Structures are given as C-alpha cells and as structure tokens.
# Entry
Amino acid sequence: MGLREKLCAGVPVLLDPAIAPASRLIKAAWIQEAVDARAAVIVDHAIICGPLDVGYRCIEREFRLTNCTFEDPVDFSRSSFKAVADYSGSTFGAEADFQSATFQFDLRLTGAVFASGAVRWSGTEIRQQLLAERVVFRSGASVHFDNCNFGDLTLFAHAEFGDSADFSGTHIGRTATFSGSRFCADAKFVGTTVDGDLNFGVLSDAGYAAASFESDVRFDSIQVRRRGNFRGVEFHGDASFLWAEIKGPTSFGADDNGLNGSHFQGSADFRDSVLSGDADFEGVVFRGEAKFSSAHCGGTLTFKTAQMHGPAEFDGISVGEELNFEGARFLPAAARADFEKASVKSSLFFSRAQFHNGASFEGMKVEGAVAQFNQVQFSMPTSFAATSFSGSCEFRDARFLPGSRPLFDGAHFDRSCSFDQAEFADGVRCRAVGFKGEATFQGTSFQATSDFSISHFEDIARFDSKLAEGGHAAVPAAQFRGTTCFEHVRFDSDARFDDVQFHDLVVFRETAFRVVYFSSTGRVGNQPQMGGAVDLTGCIYNRIRADWKSLLDAVHKYELLSYASYNRQPYAQLEKTYRAAGLDRDADDIYLTRRRVEGKRLKIRQQPFAWLLDRTYWALANYGVRPRRLLVCAALAVVLGVLIFRLPGSVTAKKDPSSPETCPVTSQNSLRTTDAIRLSVRYFLPVDITLVSPCAASTNYYYRVKFEDCAVLLHLLGWILVPVGIASLAGTLRRVAP
# Structure
C-alpha cells in the first residue's frame, strides 16, 4: 500500500528521518483527499510538497503532522478540528494561515518552526490546551494571534519570536505561560484577557527562565484575573502597561535570594494601570522613564532597592496598603522624582532612599500608621508642600544636601513627627505647617535659613537635647546657624529650646507660646545661646524660663539693626510674666532695663522736655523702682532747711493775736536744731501742717540771698519730690499686684 492509499485509509504514516528525502515526499493534495474522506491524518517526518489547503473544512478525526516539513504555504483558515491537532516539531517554510480555525481539543505546536512569511492565527479558537513550548517564529515570520480565544492552558515557554508578535484582543481561559521566551521584534498584547495566571517571569518549579523582549512591547489594557509574573524579565525596548489590570499579585522584583529582578532598558509605562493585589518591583532597574502616574495598587507596592536612572513619575498614584521605596536610588541622570498627589492608605517607607535629582511629594496623602524617611538623602530641590500624614512621620538622620531647598509649606502631621539628627544644609521652609502631635527636632542641624512662619504646634515641640540614663546627652540639641523665623507661629504646649544654639538672627515676631524654655544661664556650654539678634515684637507667652538679661541683650541687638525699630511690648511682656510668676525683683530689673533703653533713645535736641523729665525721674526716683535716692534727696532738702534756719536772722516771729503759741526764736533770730527741723519739714511738705506755725523765714539777706527765697526753694523741692515719691510708691504697689 502506497503513502497515498495509507493516508486515505487513515493508516498512520510514520517515516524514518534517516531515509532519503525523496522517499519521504507526500503531496499536499493527498492530505486534502484524506481530510475529505474523513480519515485520521497521522504523519511523522514527512516532506510535504505543494500548497496545503484544507480551509473551510470540518476535520473530524485526529490530525497529526509531526516533525514534518512544509515547503509551500498552508491554509487551515476557518477549519474546524473535532480532535487533537498536532504540529509538534514541524517546519513551515512559507506562510501559514490558521485564521478563524476552531480546535475542539488541544493544539500542539511544541518545537514547531515557522521559517518565513506571515503566520496568521487571528480569530482562532482553541477550546482546550495550546501547547507551543519551544516554538520558533524566525525572522521574517511575523505571527498574529490577535482576537483569538484560548479556553485552557496556553504554553509558549521558551518560544522564540524572531519577528513581530501580536496577541491583541486574545482571550485566554486559564494560565498563559511565556516564560523563557524571546521576542526579537515588537510584541503586542493590547486588550488581551487572561482568566488565570500570566507568566513571563522565572518559574523555578518548572525550570523556566524569564522572558526577554528585545524591542518594544505593549500590554495596554491587558486584563489578568489572577497573578502576573514578570520576575526577571528583560525589557530592552519600551514597555507599555497603560490601563493594564491585574487582579492578583504582580511580580517584577527580585526573589528571596535577591536575584531575578526585572530590567527596563527603555521606558516603563504603567500610567492608569490597576494592580489590585500586591505589586513587587524590589530591585528592579529602570534605565529609561518609569511612568506610574495615576496608577492604582490595591495591596502593597514595593520598590525596595530599585534603581531609577530616568524620570520617575508617580504623581497621582494610589496605594491601598503599603508603599515601600526603602533603599531605592533615584540617580543623577534621572529627572526629578514626582510623587505629587499620591495617596497611600497604609504606611509609607522611603528610609535610606537617595534622590540625586530632587523630588516632589506635593499634595501626597498618607493615611497609615507611619511614614518613614529615615536616612533618606536629597541632593536637589525637594518639596513636601501640602502633604498630609495621618500617622507618625519620621525624618531621622535625613540629609538635605546643598541645593536641595527643602519645602514643607502647608504640610500636616496629624501625629508625632521626628526630624531628630536630620541635617538641613540648605535653607528650609516650613511655613503654615500643622504639627498636631509631638514634634521633635533634637539633634537637627539647620546650616542655613529656616522658616517656620505661620505654623502651629499643638503638642510639645522639642528642639532641646535628649538625655539618656545617667544625665548625659544621648542626642544633642538642635543647631540654628542661619536666620531662624518663627513669625506668627503658635505653640499650644511646651516649646523646648533649653540648650539650643542660635548663631544668627531669630525672629519670634507675633509668636504665641504657652510655655517656652530657653537656657536658664543664657549660655550653651561656653557659648552664648543667642549668638545674634532676637526679634520678640508681639511675642506672647504664659510662662517663660530664660536668662532675661541675655535675652534682652539679644533684643537690643535687634533694635540696633538698620531696618528694625524699638518696641516696648517685648519688655512689657517679659516683665508681666515674671511678675505673674512672683519674681518681682527680676520684673523690676526688666522694667528698669526697658526705661534705660527708652531713655537712651531720647535726644536732648529733638525732645528736650521728654529728655529732661526722663533724666529727672531717673536721677530722683530710679524710675520708681526701689527709689532710695528719692529718700536721700528728701533728707538732703530737709537738712539744708535745718542749716538755713540755724543761721542768725533767718527766722522771724509772726504776730497772730488769735494764736496762743509763740515762735521759739533765739536771741539771734534763729531756731534751735529741733525747732529748725520742724520748720524745715513744714516748708518741705507740699501740704500745710501746724509745726512751729508762728515762725516764718525772714526777709533778711545772707550773702545777697533772702532767707525767704530759700524757704520758697525748699517748698518747691517738696512739691517735686513728695508727689514723685507718692507716684513711685503707687507704681510699686501696682507692679506687685498687677
């Protein structure tokens, strides 16, 4: 029986590959005859010559053309295979057309080779398994699997696509595996749907390596119902996952041994993608752009130790659980990392990350228990403006290098916030920041300007050192080396600046403290705490602990600046607080300091009357505080009167018939010492009293000066000194009980 008869009878034709090729020739027409005769076609190692056209046919029996060579085009389009179809190991030398074919059972292409021409599978339906392990589509053999429907397992492990491959719109009913495959030209999986797992990455259990894309690949709008495995995949061109949706975990990152992380040599575009489960990009290298704008991850999104060599765009990303960038590196060639308006439902981790070209976290919202930026490093402009942290936030040991220009304007920290031992080598702005929990800046170094204007500290704010057991400082206090501004800041709890050093101007203008602590000695170690001027204009506080002398010295330094002016309020506020605390003597000294400062500002040529009153008040009554010199002046005036009324001819007796009392003058018309004292006191006091009332100063002269004029002078001194003394006493009483 010849080969033709065997085929038509459904007898398997199993040829020996060692025999001559001429003995293995089978005409394509014979196969067509067998199909028309509804016979099973089982051929192995044959050379099929001539175009094979079995399109639009119903093939009811087995159809196996294994290890065969097709020299001419084949056409199976729109055919229906009712049994297994097997082309394993066969070589197709020309075009192959399987468009819209239907396979009721398995289709096997294991080890098949498509050498040239278009390979069209568009619209094909395979209701069970597609087994295409190690299938080869050589250069020039573009493959089209678009809009197909694969009902069960789809296996393209270790396949090779030498030309473009198109799987767009295809539906895969179960798992699809492309692990170990190599795509040498563009590949498209646009709109593909996979009801099970999608595997392009390493599968250790099956012994599959990761796939490799030598050119561009598009997974736009792909839908994967379960797991997406891309672990270790090499993307040498651009990779697009626009609007992709993966319901289960997604793996691109390194395994537990730190191996098999994916590499993106071109751009990686995940914009608007939806990764419903955990997404792992740990250790992934992005050589081109990393675009994740408006992407959504329903679980944990991990980029630990990832490397971003190009622009990193994560603006508008939303994460259902944790976002982790620990140890990630945003390298110098990369553009500014963009996390604007990102939303994280759980915790956020950026510890030990490095940003060599700046970062923007503006408008980011973190709702989880913690956000960590410990030991992070920023080299270029960095913004946290309008960020919101619902849990605790940590910037411990963070480094903001020169040129980073850190910006925290409008940020909100709902719980504790720690910048302990952070370093700001560039100017930092924290305007209108809300600190609802404890805010600690212990050990923080502010090398340039720092601006906390309009911020609000609802809990304790700690800038002091942190003490360990034994009393020594475990963490030093903050250092402000540049201009520091706390203008219009509100501290609802304690503000601890106990051993903080301010090396330059400090502005507390219109600042409101509940309790504020400065150094009680005015010094930190061997250095003054206030190395520059201090602006306390409008600053208020309920209690203060400070060395008021050094504090007012710093305030006076500010008043001497060319653009500054004197304001009484800082002195009055300090005096009021000390007096309320029962420290009256210190309060008096603060009052005296203020009066001396105001007195020095008066110029005799510009304000002669005010200058004279001030100097008189100081000279006579020491500005009403502890007016001992006023008593001395009064005593000297009375003694002067005594000396005058002891002189001969200084006193005369009044003639008053109604008064029985007589003036006790001596023979020299003077008074004895006791009577002279009484008369001197009578003339000195501004009110009339009945002391030696019949006596009066005479009109006689003493060296051209009337004694009567001396009495008038004594009376005038009394009119000045006594009211001043009464006013001083009244002022003292008011300061004691304000």
Notes: The CA atoms of residues 536 and 570 lie 6 Å apart. The chain has nine helices and 90 strands. The chain has a mean pLDDT of 91.
